[in-house]
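Weekly modeling sync, notes
Attendees: AB, CL, MP (scribe)

Item 1: holo prediction request
CL wants a bound-state model with adenosine-5'-diphosphate before deciding which constructs to order. AB pointed out that an apo prediction alone won't tell us much about the pocket. Agreed to run with the ligand included and paste results into these notes for async review.

Input as submitted:
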Amino acid sequence: MSKHEFQTEVNRLLHLMVHSLYSNKEIFLRELISNASDALDKLEYLKLTDEKYKELEQPGKIVISFDKEKKLLTISDTGIGMNDEDMVENLGTIAKSGTKSFIESLTGDAKKDSHLIGQFGVGFYSSFMVAKKVEVLSRKPLEEKAWKWVSEGDGSYEIEEAQKEDYGTQITLYLRDEAEEFADEWRIKRIVEKYSNHIPFPIYLVNDKGEEEQINRASALWRLSKSELKDEDYKEFYKQISHDSEDPLLWIHTRAEGTLEYYTLFYIPKRAPIDLFRVDYQPGVKLYVKRVFITDEERELLPTYLRFVRGIIDAEDLPLNVSREILQENIILTKIKKASVKKILGELKKLLENDREAYEGFFREMGKALKEGIYSDFENKEKLLDLMLFKSSAREGYVTFREYKEAMKEGQDKIYYIMGEDENLLRHSPLLEKYKEEGIEVLLFDDEVDAIVMPTVSEYDGTPLENIANVEEEGEVSEETREKFASVIAAMKAELGESVKDIRLTNRLKESPAVVVFDKNDPDIAMQQILRQMGQEVTPPKPILEINPRHEIFAKLQEKGDEAVTRDIAHVVLDEAKMAAGLELDDIADFNARLNRLIAKAI
Ligand code: ADP
């Protein structure tokens, strides 16, 4: 017998479980059945692809039994099983890094945590919500030795060699007094019907008379016709495959017949999966061939920008022993993928048109991922552009490109945008002044991904896009004004020297004295950030300071500015403009000193 300590994260999770943060305790059974079903899936696959397993004869099934008096509940399967090493690996640690970092992020605040925990799969450890002791007896199909894992969920577990005739896993729960209700025929039947009706293996309950009675439909839900299924069936199946505690936003159930036969059932969750922006995210779509599970680890069944989609692809025309390695090049899968993307994007478009509020909710959660498609899925670029929502200088809420175009002023021939990281700064950018005055709407690209994605969009539906920071306006300043301010500009240039690329007059400002813009050929602020994140060293390009000749500051400076005042003003104006653009100041103390001197003088 050997004693082991749980990994820290497991202890945290167990602590949460035992202190029953999660009010919906009955889901432990769904989790254990789902594990059993996965174990059966894995063995089915081996039987089909590996000679060694062909001889195995036990039918794939799950059996639940209970003892009311002793408060015992047992769940057995004839699946892939575990040996001692597997047990240490699987039942003592949390392997999935997404889940691990999620647990690390828990706050310790019971209420918040229990809400969070409903959003991810609690798995095997949820058995400790109802059990004071858990025993896992297991044997792998081609191994002689069986193993028993035992824990009371108190920081450690034990593993010892054991006897087991059938291969597979048997989990025994020693129920807590307050959870004895689960050792009950009626209760078990109801839970199984609710959560596990459509797992593709039969579940039997051993009744009073010792007979095995099948208590689920064991039909692959995705193969049933829509008319046979109720909304509730779809929702519960979603919860089973996604471990989400919330209902899905929508589902798309398709049966394709003809040259290519397949079934797909896709779900869009309401909330972004916790690992959506992790490089090691878990794919959400499982591949089946002729109802037989093949893999849930293939990330290319759908394009990566649709990695929030959960569901099932079941192909009729693939060989059962299709190797996981060649899946990506498989022409049938490529066709299914293409048709599926079309279908999913089509449904999202319908949602956008028919239920704006729901769509906005979806976009807030998943929009960033969806945007990646704009540069990675050339074929669907137009469709994806139609699905984008943006904030705008001219209205509350979101606007689409189409709506922007419909509201364009007569004579306006461009879609204008401004890019940056801070919505509030963008909304108050001096660059917007002219557009506001003229009643021209400007889109606010304030998502980090916009800086990568939007430069690849040169036009929408024939109308070019233009970054308003790149619009050059100096040409519009009259010769007379230029002459008038020539000496002020020369003095400022002499003072600011190398800290600016240029100083010039502009017509684009109304209230603000000045604005900084960048040379079109220099990388913009967002792009610089990306280059840095990629580990490149970037010397920030120097700003061009554009000044507003109509502003009082410069009118007065031109009339009567002495040298010292001009020097201070040059710096203060530049620093203010930099702040408005979200840039950092080189020397805050210097800015304060100059500003204070000017204030003192003004008094
Ligand atoms: P998850 O199922 O999300 O991976 P769990 O904590 O529920 O997480 O289970 C951890 C691992 O333990 C599983 O991935 C699987 O490898 C193993 N496991 C759990 N239950 C069984 C079972 N009935 N048969 C075989 N392996 C199992």
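Recorded for review: Residues 331-354 form the longest helix (24 residues).
Action items: CL to compare against the apo run; MP to circulate these notes.
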